[in-house]
Description:
CATH topology of the largest domain: Nucleotidyltransferase, domain 5
CATH class of the largest domain: Alpha Beta
Strand content: 5-15%
Number of helices: 14
CATH architecture of the largest domain: 2-Layer Sandwich
Domain Tc1-like transposase DDE: 245-294
GO molecular function: DNA binding
Number of domains: 3
Domain Transposase Tc1-like: 70-142
Organism: Cyprinodon variegatus (Sheepshead minnow)
Strand order of the largest sheet: 3-2-1-4-5
Number of strands: 5
Pfam family, one: HTH_Tnp_Tc3_2
Structural class: alpha/beta
Shape: elongated
Amino acid sequence: MGKKGDLSDFERGMIVGARRAGLSISETADLLGFSRTTISRVYREWSEKEKTSSERQFCGRKCLVVARGQRRMARLVRADRRATVTQITTRYNQGGQKSISERTVRRTLRQMGYSSRRPHRVPLLSAKNRKLRLQFAQAHRNWTIEDWKNVAWSDRSRFLLRHSDGRVRIWRLQHESMDPSCLVSTVQAGGGGVMVWGIFSWHSLGPLVPIEHHCNATAYLSIVADHVHPFMTTMYPTSDGYFQQDNAPCHKAGIISDWFLEHDNEFTVLKWPPQSPDLNPIEHLWDVVEREIRIMDVQPTNLRQLCDAIMSIWTKLPEECFQHLVESMPRRIEAVLKAKGGPTRY
């Protein structure tokens, strides 16, 4: 029976022990499952050289990038995360005694755990925004899931009719670049889109409102009066609810602030930090809706069909989906605290 790879020190010891115990080569081979040639060779090496371990690990070409070189390569990567393998190779070879190839650099980076990935897209945060985000997280770090259940989350989102995914890859031959099966059609502005405004809490999904034109203060006031107010008074009849909205200009208009002031005895407007979509769980609901649209067997071909699809998917979102998002709020807060107000992975 053949044996792939080198024998371990323990296996070599078993062979030597069996032979010294009086077993023949054939008996040892049958007992341990190694070939007779292997049994004979290992015992002979032990008898003549007292060799009990393999020396194959010392064979072959020595590694060109040892621990010190790996530390240097890691510094180059951290200094410029966007550097290509060619650039890293050039910088590594500058001043070095031995030059290495791009293939060696690529292999070494993989061995070190580095891999090429698309960077996460996060909002641009100023020092002031970071401070405000950190203050918000500190003020709410002791909120429990029960506290977050009293918050109604709102936001707007735009869904494009023609979704162009730049990450699509295809298999083709060199001469097939313009083959119809290898092309992805594009249209200006995604062929148009549908803007919607939505609201939800841990207890229930709220209405989803299509926005036909630009959402100015007047249009937003209608949404607040016709949809936010009924939802808040129904979900939180004891006036212990919080309404969340971002810092869009139309949300900060005077007529909006006056309306909320008139109704401050019914619910509270949550003071929201700027540039914080990672803290708003409704952003993940938009992602769910988007994914559901893209896997539809029959894709929408016009804006009316797209709007109908969005509304239908919204109403069918399961409770565990949006409740799980609300229950993630303590983790989101901790992530902002850990990042000292910086962007998080949520």
